[in-house]
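pinging the channel bc i need a second pair of eyes. not urgent but kinda urgent?? the chain im working w is below, pasted from the shared doc
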Amino acid sequence: MSAASTETSTPLPTAGSRVFFQGAPGVGCVGSSPINGDDPVQKKQGKVTVKYDRKELRKRLVLEEWIIEQLSELYDCEEEEMPEVEIDIDDLLEVNSDDERASKLQESLIDCYKPTEDFVRELLGRIKGMRKLSAPTKKGL
């Protein structure tokens, strides 16, 4: 059996387990014992932690669900049938004034035949105090 087929037959870790890295034969980490060339499937544990602002993510999710619900009402259809409307919350948060934000939203909703002023006003009120989501940061290795 080749080394490649041995690697693919290794069971995958379960969702609650740690991440395992497989080193190349004969290559070891500093301070670790040398890797035995006879064992091509030796596992090394690695721990990767990513820090997310869960509270901010939860707020964002609730807002996005609300937006989808409101757009469904504005367009009188289900989400799957809705025309493609792009509302980028981070993009709106980069804009300095509410007038500019409202203008951007109105441009996105140009195809809507129902009045959108209440939706725009409510959305602008909901994004007040929110922060732009940044890429997750690596906490430690």
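so Helices lie at 3-8, 54-75, 89-94, 98-108, 117-127. and The CA atoms of residues 56 and 130 lie 8 Å apart. — does that match what u expected or am i reading it wrong
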